[in-house]
Specification:
Largest sheet: 6 strands, mixed
Low-confidence stretches: none
Helix content: 25-40%
Mean pLDDT: 93
Order of helices and strands: HEHEHEEEHHHEHEHHEHEE
Shape: globular
Number of strands: 10
Distance between the termini: 37 Å
Number of helices: 10
Strand order of the largest sheet: 6-8-5-9-7-10
Structural class: alpha+beta
Strand content: 15-25%
Length: 323
């Protein structure tokens, strides 16, 4: 199939939800922004052999690429408006591959309410790369930033952490896990991160700072602290781990570091003043989502990590390094 035939067959049907996509017949989209709102834009890339296995199915690749991008919108309190996608891969990608890729996008964009607005496809040598640019809207001057944390704030995390990092090790075979239910849970958490979009919009006006955890909990907390000019204390005994993660950490305590620094969680880390704790508790109930306090913002610039016995925990690495 030619490039244009492929676009018409697989991607144009995904762009029917928004007139700004112009049916993918032009080289650009036209995005309307509501009065009193600002446009939030983020771009992310996932690469074969780095962010997903070389033999991953095209549907899961598509869904992860979109979800990773939308997590950035969630961390800023934005509601999805649409996305662009650039697919750069080898000529061996056939019609069945593209059909699965488009079906994966269709599943998630309908659930997450984020239509395709356009994109590009490129034939190249080397690993498959998928880049996603997401657009969101947020009421003017209400966006969440990582630079607003204040001394005395309590630190929270949504959901659970470490599942994706442990799931990757299970996938790679460096962790041998025979319990099929545990394997399936951890692999799902790695392959299909959950962008916390509803939480993000509800944190506007409540959280002082927020960031999504992509490179590792300790690393991303460090990014927040640097941007805010503060330090922090992390109590690992208070961190939320799934039953699957707890079992693996109990079997090998060194995996605690893996869970803290492995990344790919895409949960929202945020800080709130002490007088808003009841509001956070009520929000967790409304969203049916675990929101766990695990530390506090302090003066200084150090991220102090305490082990389950409240002793300082030395970490050789704090998170994933891109270079």
């Amino acid at each position: 199939m030619t490039e244009f035939e492929r676009i018409a067959k697989f991607f144009a049907p995904l762009a029917q939800e928004d007139p700004g996509a112009i049916g993918l017949t032009d080289d650009a989209a036209v995005i309307s922004v509501s009065d009193g709102t600002e446009l939030v834009v983020s771009v992310d890339s996932v690469v074969a052999g780095v962010h997903f296995p070389d033999d991953e199915t095209s549907g899961f690749i598509a869904r992860k690429a979109l979800r990773v991008g939308l997590s950035d919108l969630a961390a800023m309190g934005a509601s999805p408006r649409g996305y662009l996608i650039c697919l750069a891969g080898g000529r061996e990608l056939d019609q069945e591959w593209f059909r699965g890729f488009a079906e994966g996008l269709s599943i998630d964009q309908s659930v997450l309410r984020c239509p395709l607005l356009g994109g590009d496809t490129v034939a190249k040598r080397g690993p498959l790369t998928v880049s996603t640019t997401v657009f969101g809207e947020v009421p003017r001057a209400t966006e969440l930033r990582r630079s607003g944390a204040k001394v005395g704030d309590r630190i929270f995390i949504s959901g659970s952490i470490g599942d994706a990092a442990l799931g990757l090790r299970v996938l790679q075979g460096t962790i041998s896990e025979t319990d099929e239910a545990v394997r399936a849970y951890l692999l799902d958490r790695y392959r299909l991160p959950e962008p916390r979009l509803r939480l993000g919009t509800q944190l506007r006006g409540l959280a002082n700072a927020a960031i999504d955890v992509s490179d590792g909990l300790i690393s991303d907390l460090g990014h927040m602290c640097v941007a805010s000019g503060v330090g922090s204390v992390v109590r690992t005994a208070s961190l939320p781990f799934s039953l699957a993660a707890r079992a693996l950490i109990a079997a090998d305590p060194s995996r605690l570091t893996m869970a803290l620094t492995g990344g790919d969680d895409y949960e929202i880390l945020f800080t709130v003043p002490g007088d808003r704790l009841a509001t956070v508790s009520g929000l967790a109930t409304r969203l049916n989502l675990t929101l766990t306090e695990f530390g506090e913002i302090v003066a200084g610039e150090e991220v102090l990590v305490l082990d389950p016995n409240d002793r300082p925990l030395e970490l050789n690495v704090t998170g994933y390094k891109h270079y």
